[in-house]
Design a protein that fits this description.
This is Sodium/solute symporter. The chain is an all-alpha fold. It is 72% helix and 1% strand. The protein contains 21 helices and 2 strands. The chain has a two-stranded antiparallel ribbon with strand order 1-2. A hairpin with a 5-residue loop joins β1 and β2. α8 packs across α16.
């Protein structure tokens, strides 16, 4: 249990964020109603620092702090690949996708699919995007937050989740994207500060890198500091699986998921959007060092007898003692930090939780209003659209809480969320990639690919959950499964595009690149702020990091 001062800091932080969110979202000129453009896209006024921090905050939730530390304890730096590989997909977002998104003036990504393909593609992506936002961005985040708050405060998990849901929903539903982005910017800074604090204390406790490697050598666990594992590695995350499988997950998540890309759609202009995405790519270097590495420090402290994990021990099905590492991050907070700092770390955890939920709720509100409701009632007023969005966000909160018992069955929350993404992403990644690079990608081809690919992904997921490793499918690591499903989707779209040849409209004719070099023709800002320079620098840094941690 934590001290009174830490509880006071936590409560004060929550009230501060809610107040800022409400003030930002409701502040407007006298007698002026909130328009749909202001509510859903912040009036297209966002600049690159805010976009970059908001992208990071929407991506990094309490789930990441908790589960990445757990993965650091269990498997070392391996799952840090999900953070570093994101930098490459953010470069793709900045170079290849953002120009189409900004120039076409879309409000949602399903809107983009309708302009490039047809209405059926828009409807399907809107449905999948809402579903994934509820499961991936909200429910999993609630689960991680509930585990943390129950461990720290002794509060029932569902009670704490309902309270956080109500407070986050309050400023998000009322304030819209501007409230979300402003609070996310603050929360990113708090989250990073808190993560650095726990990293420094864990580093000092273990005595530095040499002492850690000495313990790992003694435990025959030196592979824990390697990011790239050999083919056939027991983790299922060999370097081949990472470099083939992650782009399928990453392109969907960073380039084609409404919850993430909505921050880009609210950009002031194309340059701010591109540089904001690249800024987030640079920030994504940090999580390996401040989220994953502390978990490895905890493993070292545990093996050296310095850290007590007895509270995480429980009796397994066969009567043996089993270590449940889901709570490793909260134990690090309570055992390594002094009073006062514990409250700051809890605030950081809540920052991650609230920012991701807020971003997902705003995305759901936008999709429900623009892509679903307005389709059937095209003459709907701005006031009505905002109202529909608010109700949709509220319903999504209730549904996500109802999913928690099902999702809690995963041993590792981080593997759980990526397992779900691996079966959702392939058809969406396929139709976006082929759509922007292949002139002959047809509407019917994309439509059948989304349908068949989604059905195939669900079928494979069910077989894995029901029969597990007993089947051939169950023996394929989820990263490689994502790649195989993507290949099946590409074949499907190519075949159907030839069976049903493309008939370009005036809109779709300008929504694909004529060559691989065309995206680089825009000059951009001069100097170091140029998107080409920033992309090259980011690529160089990531190459050096992978060489150092291979």
């Amino acid at each position: 249990m934590i001290s009174t001062i830490d509880i006071a800091i936590t409560i004060a932080y929550i009230l501060f964020i809610v107040t800022i969110g409400l003030w930002t979202g409701t502040r407007k000129k006298k007698n002026q109603e909130t328009t749909s453009g202001e509510y859903f896209l912040a009036g297209k006024s966002l600049k690159w620092p805010m976009i970059g921090l908001a992208l990071f905050a929407t991506n990094i939730s309490c789930l990441h702090l908790v589960s990445l530390a757990q993965s650091g304890f269990d498997s070392g730096l391996l799952n840090g690949n999900f953070e570093w590989m994101a930098a490459f997909t953010l470069i793709l977002l900045a170079l290849l996708f953002i120009p189409f998104y900004i120039r076409s003036g879309i409000s949602t990504l399903p809107d983009f699919l309708e302009r490039r393909y047809n209405r059926a593609c828009r409807d399907w992506l809107a449905f999948i995007s809402i579903l994934s936002a509820i499961i991936i961005h909200i429910a999993f985040s609630f689960l991680a937050g509930g585990i943390v708050l129950e461990t720290l405060f002794g509060i029932n998990m569902y009670t704490s989740i309902i309270v956080i849901a109500a407070l986050t929903g309050l400023y998000t539903i009322i304030g819209g994207l501007k409230a979300v982005v402003v609070t996310e910017t603050i929360q990113s800074l708090v989250l990073i500060t808190g993560a650095i604090i726990i990293t420094v204390f864990a580093w000092n406790k273990i005595g530095g890198w040499e002492q850690m490697t000495a313990v790992l050598q003694k435990e025959s666990a030196m592979d824990k500091i390697s990011m790239l594992r050999p083919i056939g590695d027991a983790s299922g995350m060999s370097w081949v699986a990472v470099f083939l499988g992650y782009p399928i997950l990453g392109i969907w998540y960073w380039c084609a998921d409404q919850t993430i890309v909505q921050r880009v759609l609210g950009a002031k202009d194309e340059n701010h959007a591109r540089v904001g995405a690249l800024f987030c790519g640079f920030i994504k270097i940090l999580p390996v060092f401040i989220f994953v590495l502390p978990g490895l420090f905890a493993y070292t402290l545990y093996k050296s007898g310095t850290m007590d994990l007895s509270s995480l021990q429980h009796v397994g099905a066969n009567g043996e003692s089993v270590l449940n590492t889901k709570g490793i991050y909260t134990l690090m907070i309570t055992q390594l930090l002094p009073k006062g700092l514990v409250g700051i770390l809890v605030a950081a955890l809540l920052s991650g939780l609230m920012s991701q939920i807020a971003g997902a709720l705003n995305s759901i509100a936008t999709l429900s209003s623009y892509d679903l409701y307005k389709r059937f009632k095209p003459e709907t007023t701005d006031k009505k659209l905002v109202s529909v969005g608010r109700w949709s966000a509220g319903i999504a909160l209730v549904v996500s809480i109802g999913l928690l018992p099902l999702l809690n069955s995963y041993q590792s929350l981080f593997e759980g969320i990526n397992d779900v993404i691996a079966h959702i992403a392939p058809p969406i990644t396929c139709v976006f990639l082929l759509g922007v690079f292949w002139k002959k990608a047809s509407a019917k081809g994309a439509q059948y690919t989304l349908l068949i690919g989604s059905i195939l992904g669900v079928a494979v997921f069910i077989v894995n959950k029901v029969y597990g490793a007993e089947t051939f499918i169950g023996q394929i690591p989820f990263m490689m499964m994502a790649f195989y499903l993507f290949c099946a989707c590409v074949i499907t779209q190519v075949v159907f595009s030839y069976l049903y040849p493309v008939k370009h409209t005036a809109q779709s004719e300008v929504l694909y690149w004529k060559s691989i070099w065309e995206p680089l023709q825009r000059k951009g800002w001069s100097g170091i702020g140029n998107y080409k320079v920033l992309s090259a620098v980011l690529l160089l840094i990531m190459g050096v990091l992978y060489v150092c941690f291979k």
